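Intended use. Records like the one below are meant for learning the mapping from a protein sequence to its folded structure. Do not use them to infer anything beyond what is encoded.
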Amino acid sequence: MDMVRNELGPDAIIIQIEEGKAGVRVTAALEAGATPPPPKRAPEPNQTPLAFEISHPLPPSREFDNADVNAVLSHHGVPFDTAARLSEAIRAIEAASLSEAFSAALETAIRFSPITDAHSRPIMLVGPPGAGKTICAAKLTADALLHARPVHLISTDTVKAAGIQQLDHFAQLMKQTVSTADTPGELEAVIRGRTMEGGLTIIDTPGTNPFDMQELEGLLKFIQRVDAEPVLVLPAGLDPLDAQEIASVFSRMGCQRFIATRLDAARRYAGIVMAARPGHLALAAVSRSPYIAEGLETATPMGLSRLLTALPGRKKTDKPMDDRR
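Structure written out for the chain above:
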């Protein structure tokens, strides 16, 4: 049996044994389905195929869910259509954190257009009463002076003495003077009377009721008379649909950008989102403090996202805005 198994393998069986004068004859065979003898040379191993192919890296694990997204949109009172669009964009975005997801979604839903240091066209600040135009004029002046740019400050708010006094006070602190213009013709003459190489002209205007046609017509005469860019100054905390309507009115007056102000006095910023929707205005900057030293902050998708996602009671791990100026 040992000899048979050495020849045929461990599964060999003896079928017949015959004895004769010449000796013993053993007939052996292998059972059907028996294990074949080992090959003389080991074959190359076959690679186990993958169950699926990875065509791109797996998305990072998210630190938020739909409930977090809905909480942000609900807290700020974003209208249904815009909220649905942002929510849909966030679901399609591979982002680990809530602020990153909102940043990417905002970039697809609203427009941003910062006022850079290379801006040379005169800036005319317009907007409703109490929006913070004079504060913005002072902050723009301080920023230009920090970049060694000469500034020409002009005010058309000559009806109320307080308007001129406030801007003049800020100007004196920065060793600047304020020119005044009562009419569109005077404004044109004041601008032409002072040319500055590489300088910036900033025009402060009185508050304009966006729903008063007479006031709008008066402002439009100033805008049409001089080659200046009208920039809307819009306070945060407005009803979202009111903010959208105001942005629409001033866009028809020639505005293309707006500065969001008084963010320190508001906790809901849907109005900013609605004013920056396509077809209205682009967000240029934000102001979160009444202090001139804390200047305007350049508007970015991530900066606005961090403002929106920093809900009361939520752990704040990020600074509210990027790109401090």
